[in-house]
Amino acid sequence: MSSVPSLPSVLSAAAIGIGVSFALYIFRRPRIRIAKSVYLQGMGDLKVIKQTVGNKIHVTLDFGVPKLPFCSAVVTAAGTIYVSGAVGAKMDGGRLMVVPGGPQQEALQTMRTIEACLKACGAGLEHVTMVHAYLVNYSFERFDSMNKGYLEAWGSRPLPSRICTGTDHVGLGGAVEMDAIAQL
């Protein structure tokens, strides 16, 4: 004769399952710590602007010029960080401009900008899972040059997934733009 569980025991087991699931959700959520400022080579110390909208945190690096869309990130409650498209920029005489030196130097500075955005979000390059790269006037030589700067930024760290595509234009009239996805 088979035993049928009583309704109270089924409800008790369901409540325990829900409680365990909730506890795992709460304790596995990453602690998100937004910095007040970050250092970016070629830019100095940058103020970090934080805005919370719903369960997302919007983070923007303040370059001291009108708000720029390529210096920001969004952090979800689950700890996924979406860094907006960034270009290899620096301040020169109070003006924001692309670093000289072509795709290699632009890629290196672009990755420094992405790293600064990640630091503002409490993360680093080691948290990056995907990079999208855009290269103006895509050719083997320009790709090779961009790749040298990209690899210099990573050093000996493992590389994330990446795609690179050619395009006609990127921000500030540069040659390289990249965005990134990271997970705390």
TrEMBL record:
The chain crosses the membrane at residues 6-27. Pfam families: Ribonuc_L-PSP. Keywords: Membrane, Transmembrane, Transmembrane helix. GO terms for molecular function: deaminase activity. One of its GO terms (cellular component) is cytosol. The keyword Nucleotide-binding does not apply. Belongs to the RutC family. This is YjgF-like protein. It comes from Effrenium voratum. The lineage of its organism: Eukaryota, Sar, Alveolata, Dinophyceae, Suessiales.
